[in-house]
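Re: beginner question about structure tokens

> Can someone show what the tokenized structure looks like for a real chain? I only ever see the sequence side.

Sure, here's an example I had lying around. Input first:
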Amino acid sequence: MASSEPSSFKMLLTLGLAGMVSGLVLVGIYTVTAPRIERNRAEALDRAVYQVLPGAVRKETSEPNPEGDVVYAGYDAEDALLGYAIPAEGAGFQDTIRLLYGVNLERRRVVGMRVLESRETPGLGDKIFKDLDFVAEFDDLAIDPAIEAVPKGSAAEAWQVDAITGATISSKAIVRIINDGNERWLEELH
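And the corresponding structure tokens:
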């Protein structure tokens, strides 16, 4: 009596071919879309530089440091330096948060902040970029002493921000990332 079940060899061959075809399709899609994704990231970064440095009409990119990191100097229409846009990243609640913030060294203030990439919890942690009141707290924020996240409604000092209720970890992560960026860059930029 002949078995009607396919042989193990045929099943393995079919699965192998399906896996190979799927892999080739994924590699092809990645190869085609990677340049566009990179271009979109670069355009988003360029827009963010002007958002975090209000009044800037021109930017200059610094020479990369030994780690390959750069900052962006923003200038107004009269070619006066307005400040620096500093890329920074660090751990959030879910994953790494990438952001860009503007700092005016003369005034010792953060003058803007934009989250560039985040995978924080939808509906809670994503408020770090969707809650416009939270984002606006970084439009004129003292950097001395270090920035501090405090419970909602209790920010009383020029260096304090109200953490987002339900997204305290993500709020504190933003503050920690900016403080780490300041520690890393401000002395070098003077």
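Each token stands for a local structural state, so reading them left to right follows the chain. The chain has a mean pLDDT of 92.
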